[in-house]
Amino acid sequence: MSKPRLVSSQTTQTKFRLAPELLVKIHDLMVKARTLEERLIKMYKQNDGYFWIGGPGEESFNVPLGLLIKKGQGPKYDYFHGHYRSSAVLLAMGADPFDTIRQMKNTANDPYSGGRNFVNHQSIQKWNVCPISSPIEVQYSMAPGTAIANKRAGGDGISIVVGGDAGTAEGDFATCLVWSSRPVNELPLLICVTNNKWGISTSADTQHGDRCIADRGKAFGMRTMTFNGLDPEESYLKLKEAMDYVRTERKPLLLEAQVSRLYGHSSASGANFIVNEEDPLKTFEARLESGGILSKNEIQKIWDGYNEQMLNFARQAREEPQPDPESIWDHIYCGQKGRVDRYW
Which residues pair with 163 in a beta bridge? Predict the structure, then answer.
């Protein structure tokens, strides 16, 4: 997208804690992520995709997280264990939105699963993005494994795991807290809970006796943090503080970020916009406009540009081939290509 003008930081220093350039970058990525998700929803509703699940309403947390991840391959870099609402994290890391649209369309060119999984189930080996799976919160029990690798390798690489509030009722979450906090063997693991106050169709009000999910970490002697994940500035600063702590102290930290769920759970619940949820992108845009960072026209141009881009990607994906039926046998075993009859 074309770069908008930037006002002097002197005129905004009383209103913003981040530099104007960074604010504009965060906003650009938030719009990119939102237009991608809304295009995926349109594809589903036009019978141009199989199933949608994603993270509109979580961009204000996910984009700052993606910008702060130390990207690379191997235990000297950060490992990311996301879930199916983490698409904005990957976009902020530099992922191509066309690849997510390919997965929505289940084309053979889908680099994440070869057209064999539904959307927002990414994996990127060269960036230590571990495979995202559908069973909820299993990533919490996997993350200590890569954190052990980070610890053994030395350096400042850490593991980061993200899941939703409803999934913290799963045993995998308790497993994560236990294994990351063992005395004298603490792990460099950032444990994130994005709390949208819903578990599919169940309100959190009837599910959690604790006042803050992050408080559970106190029982394990770990540092905790709770903040407004609807504010991208606060998210960036709090995440940086948390990641700096884990990198330096080589100990776990449990944080809870309050977020929104703007289009319901998934296409299974209709994927319609929820009007009584706060839209962090609109709130952020109002602040950027009132602070003189971006004008209304500049904001609209960014939206128009990304909407056109996502539409073009969807059109291109329609022309791409579907997976060859024989490819269903690929990767059943590590390194396998094609069917191996001796296993059957």
Answer: 193
Show Cβ contacts of residue 210 under 8 Å, excluding neighbours closer than 6 positions: 216
Distances (CA, A) of 87 to 82, 120, 263: 9, 6, 15
In the chain, the amino acid numbered 154 is G
- List pLDDT tens digits, range 104-163: 999 999 999 999 999 999 999 999 999 999 898 999 999 999 999 999 999 999 999 999
Out of 3-17, 65-79, 130-144, 218-232, least confident range: 3-17
**What's the rounded Cα separation, in Å, for the pair 36 and 169?**
30
Query: CA–CA distance from 284 to each of 27, 128, 152, 230, 234 (Å)?
Result: 8, 30, 41, 9, 11
Short-list 258, 98, 120, 288, CA closest to 194: 258
* DSSP character string of 42-57: HHHHTTSSS-----TT
Q: Which of 188, 68, 77, 65 is nearest to 126 (CA)?
A: 77
Q: Which residues pair with 160 in a beta bridge?
A: 80, 190
At residue 11, φ and ψ (nearest 5 deg) are -85, -10
pTM of the predicted model, to two decimals?
0.93
CA distance 29 to 36: 10
Higher pLDDT, 30 or 334: 30
Please spell the DSSP secondary structure of 66-114, one letter per residue. Answer: HHHS---SSTTS-EEE--TT-HHHHHHHT--HHHHHHHHHT-TT-TTTT
Residue 5 has pLDDT above 50, yes or no: no
Nearest to 103 by CA among 85, 86, 123: 123
* Residue whose structure tokens are 């939105």: 97
The residue with tokens 């999934």 is 167
